[in-house]
Design goal:
38 residues; mainly alpha; 1 helix; rod-shaped
C-alpha cells in the first residue's frame, strides 16, 4: 500500500468520525431521540 493511499484513508476516516460526532451532537435530541422512542 503506497503512503498516499494510506494518508487519504486516514484523512477520510478522521473526517467521517468528526462529521459523525458533529451530526450526533447537532441532531442528538431530536432525530436520535425520536429514533429511540419510535
Amino acid at each position: 500500500m503506497n503512503p498516499r493511499a494510506l494518508f487519504l484513508a486516514a484523512l477520510f476516516t478522521t473526517f467521517v468520525g468528526v462529521a459523525h460526532q458533529a451530526l450526533f451532537r447537532y441532531d442528538g435530541n431530536g432525530w436520535n431521540g425520536k429514533k429511540e422512542v419510535g
